């Protein structure tokens, strides 16, 4: 099985780039399942119905998210169990939505989980380690794909080694900067610290570069707008065997027109 996973999709530029890439490349690359991180799909904020539908209609099978999941109130409708959006699993259970989804592809049962790190991110979260442990034990799926949305590479590295051999893939998101450390960990777990971003290539992690520079120079809070110009695709293709073990992980880093 080949899974195509897109890093954080940022705004309209990112959405268009992802939908175009799927249309051009899914068949050519023999992709069986498409997953994407939707944390910034609505002008740099979390999902709304319009942006959710654009990506699902464009060929994404499941959308994960991160700390921007609650940016727009209408997201609660999108977290219905019939939808294809999952929130981080380690938000307190009183919140709407689920942190993982189980689907079947060509007879293979797959668990897709969204997990949010705690270092430099959000207060009040449950442990990402313990919460995913519980879900794995409960569902007992051979194939498990994890989007670990976290800031600190140390937390991501530790998370990868902790779950090595027990999940099929751990793909980091959140920083919008692709790392070059893709590998197969002990026990057959594909790992990369950060898949990167699908969005404007000429901004500062997606936002207008002049606004970002002004913020650093002045230290005065300002609103950010998505950057204009060319887009980019940051993604990975993970190949997983019938036993749930990863065979390979390959990075994609492309500029779009």
UniProtKB/TrEMBL annotation:
What are the positions of the active site?
68
Domain of life the protein comes from:
Bacteria
Q: Name one GO molecular function term.
A: 2',3'-cyclic-nucleotide 3'-phosphodiesterase activity
Question: How is this protein named in the record?
Answer: Calcineurin-like phosphoesterase
Which organism does this record belong to?
candidate division WS2 bacterium ADurb.Bin280
From which lineage does this chain's organism come?
A: Bacteria, candidate division WS2
């Amino acid at each position: 099985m080949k899974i195509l996973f897109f890093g954080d999709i940022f705004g309209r530029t990112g959405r268009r780039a992802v939908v175009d890439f799927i249309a051009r490349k899914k068949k050519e690359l023999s992709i069986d399942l498409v997953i994407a991180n939707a944390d910034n799909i609505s002008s740099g904020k979390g999902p709304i119905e319009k942006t959710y539908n654009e990506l699902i209609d464009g060929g994404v099978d499941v959308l994960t998210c991160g700390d921007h999941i609650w940016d727009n109130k209408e997201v609660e409708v999108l977290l219905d169990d019939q939808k294809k959006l999952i929130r981080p699993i380690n938000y307190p259970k009183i919140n709407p939505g689920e942190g993982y989804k189980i689907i079947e592809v060509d007879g293979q049962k797959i668990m897709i989980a969204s997990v949010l790190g705690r270092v430099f991110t959000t207060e009040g979260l449950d442990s990402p380690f313990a919460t995913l442990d519980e879900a794995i034990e409960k569902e007992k799926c051979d194939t498990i794909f994890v989007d670990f949305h976290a800031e600190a590479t140390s937390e991501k590295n530790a998370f990868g080694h902790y779950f090595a051999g027990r999940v099929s893939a751990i793909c980091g998101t959140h920083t919008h900067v692709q790392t070059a450390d893709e590998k197969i960990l002990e026990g057959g777990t594909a790992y990369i610290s950060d898949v990167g971003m699908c969005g404007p290539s000429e901004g500062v992690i997606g936002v207008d570069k002049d606004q970002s520079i002004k913020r650093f120079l002045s230290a005065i809070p300002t609103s950010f707008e998505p950057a204009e110009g060319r887009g980019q695709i940051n993604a990975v293709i993970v190949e997983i065997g019938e036993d749930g073990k990863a065979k390979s992980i390959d990075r994609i880093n492309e500029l779009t027109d």
